[in-house]
Amino acid sequence: MKLALIGFGDLGHYIEDMISEFNPIERGATKYFDDNLVRDGVAGALPFKDHASDAYADHYFYVCLGYKHLRTKNEIVKRLVELGRNVPSFVHPSAWVDKTVTIGPGSFVYPGCSIDRNTKIGRGTWITNADVIAHDCTIGDACWFGATVTISGKVTVKDQTFIGSGTTVANDAHVGSNCIIGMGTAVTKSIPDDRSAIGNPLRILERPLKLV
Question: pTM of this prediction?
Answer without folding.
Answer: 0.95
